Amino acid sequence: MNKKYMFWLSVAMLGSMMLTEAQAASWSDTFLGYRYGTQFHEPGIEEEIEQHIVQFSHVSGYKYGSNYFNVDFIQSDRNDAINGGGSGAINVYSVYRHQLHYGKLFGEPLSLGPVRDLALTAGFDLSHKNSSFASRKRMLLLGPTLKFDLPRGFVDLSVLLAREWNHCGLDICRLEGNQDSIDFDPYYQFSLAWGVPFEAGSLPMKFQGFFNYNTEKGKDYFGVATKPERLSRTSLMLDAGEVAWGSSNNLWVGVGYEFWRNKFGNHGKPGVDVDAITFNAEWHF
Which interval of the chain is the signal sequence (predicted)? Predict the structure, then answer.
């Protein structure tokens, strides 16, 4: 069976599951977000890149588990140019994760010590960027998740088997035996995600984010071996709606930090490491 057909069939099945279960959601949270920073980087680009990021995010729970969906619309400045130049590129990056909770399926959580329950996580990443490189990432993931026991909020630790397909639009990718489309080797993603509310005096706050460690995934478009990749995005947020007009979980504002090493598995070239401070805002429906 064609690999692209298999990928889109898997996405369609997960999407159908997500829509069916969303109709029976027992709880949900949806928001529009905005992030802004001036210290971003892209592989092969020496200059720092300014980015405006508009985010749509949804999380919900249902009888047997939970759904998470997020899409980022990333607008870069001219240092990360659109194909043909003249303005900054736009990258649309979507993430979907579905969890089946052991405790919800079998009536009793599989708990041990600090672990509250066990889940099976499946999902996909999709992206499209209109730069000259023209990245089009397609990734499927599957694996177990440990759900830790907290009085408030959550901490999840996942070990996921990942398979990624991507694209390169540069002329050099089609010369001298190189390829413009690539199937990377299967690899592991170790993913830690958290969202912890707390009070700083009388101020309602939350600390949220994720850290992903991806093992190497074989050779890239040019036959160069990739290296392990580390990505973390964190933010410290204030419930400004609660402080200003008494509306909890409505408007959040704060600061964030993006840490990225060996971006996309690249190494030994400019732009593969990121340390970017961001301004963050969320408007929850």
Answer: 1-24
